[in-house]
Specification:
globular; alpha/beta; 8 helices; Rossmann fold; Sc_DH/Rdtase_CS; 253 residues; NAD(P)-bd_dom_sf; SDR_fam; EC 1.1.1.69; single chain; gluconate 5-dehydrogenase activity; 7-stranded parallel β-sheet
Amino acid sequence: MDDPRSLFGLAGRVAVVTGASSGLGRRAVEVLHAAGAQVIAVARREGDLQSLVSQVGQGAAYVAADVTNRAGLPDLVAQISAPFGAPDIVVHAAGVNTREPADEVSLERWDQTLELNLTVPFFLSQALVPAMKQKGWGRIVTFASLQTTRAFPGGIAYGASKAGVGQMTRAMAEAWSGDGITANALGPGFFPTELTQAVFDDPNRAARNAAQTCVGRNGRLEDIDGPLLFLCSNASAFVTGQVLMVDGGFTAK
């Protein structure tokens, strides 16, 4: 038997992470790089990307871009592939939650939410899959949510997009796993990120959410490390089409 620790190593792999300027996306860049991968960080805020790449060091690069620019997708893929070659791993961490009551949802905000949370992960994956097929190895990791299966107030657009992520993950697995490309999703509970700032700014609300978990607390950024490495590495070679909830047991109660 090989050393089980080697199952989680990413030496020789190239990963790209969207939404990399903050929160779970930034954490993903740090973790995948620490595991041995060369990593390309993608987001709109160039200053934040520069500081991240400077912190991470050699083997990290960035692309400042708006991933929702459909016409710019071919150029984005070229820029992503330029520093280290075509990615073996793509982590879709970019997302938006407009938190509008159902009676107030606008077409503009609905389209914005579905575009970033659902459309971009599919079409960017589709554009990166041919190179993964050539290697016979690839990892696609999207971000699901508590709202993939739960309805929250003010979350109809966000919830619809994240429910779509769950089905898209299964469908991508069906389409591409025969070529060695797994497709899975992480479903975080409440983690301190820009998307959940409103939750953590309200101590009572944060405490109520923590009380709904089995472990009795909200997530910490480091809680995503192990599940992410599992889905991005050889450790999950026979795992595909799954949504792995990383929520302290929130959805178990």
